[in-house]
Design brief:
With 143 residues, the protein is mainly alpha-helical. It is built from five helices and four strands, in the order H-H-H-E-E-H-H-E-E.
């Protein structure tokens, strides 16, 4: 229950599980969520559930790079807009959940040619309204 403060019990449980089941994938709640027990529990369940999809997605990207004869580093976008290494995305796929709108906003910023200036409101000299519409939702953000 208090693993963010003292993860020793989770780490011990991991050792016990891995000694009996060495290929078992385990998500430790203290590495995924915040202090709240329910938030950590839910984030851990989602993270574990998304791992097969993350492996499939990363492999598809890697295969595409290989087929195109591209030797480039592969990164994925986290839901806060930062980049994640492949290892991080495979370990914490829950952090890539809902990163689509962030990707769209970053792409829109590049396509508009807006210059980022961190000291200004909204980080841009000329603000721009981003509207993202898909089959299920709409997203409005000021760049």
């Amino acid at each position: 229950m208090f693993s963010p403060v003292n993860p020793s019990q989770e780490l011990h449980a991991l050792e016990v599980l891995q000694s009996s089941y060495p290929t078992l994938e385990v998500t430790l709640s203290h590495t995924v969520g915040s202090v709240g027990f329910l938030e950590r529990e839910n984030a851990s369940i989602l993270n574990a559930s998304l791992k097969p999809l993350a492996r499939f997605t990363v492999k598809a990207f890697q295969d595409a790079l290989t087929q195109l004869s591209l030797s480039a580093a592969l990164f994925l976008v986290a839901n806060d807009g930062t980049l994640m290494s492949v290892t991080a995305a495979l370990t914490f796929p829950v952090h890539t959940f809902s990163s689509g709108p962030v990707n769209s906003m970053r792409g829109a910023a590049v396509l508009t040619g807006l210059k980022e200036v961190p000291s200004t409101p909204h980080n841009f000299i000329d603000p721009c309204l981003f509207v993202g519409i898909d089959s299920r939702s709409s997203l409005l953000r000021l760049l």
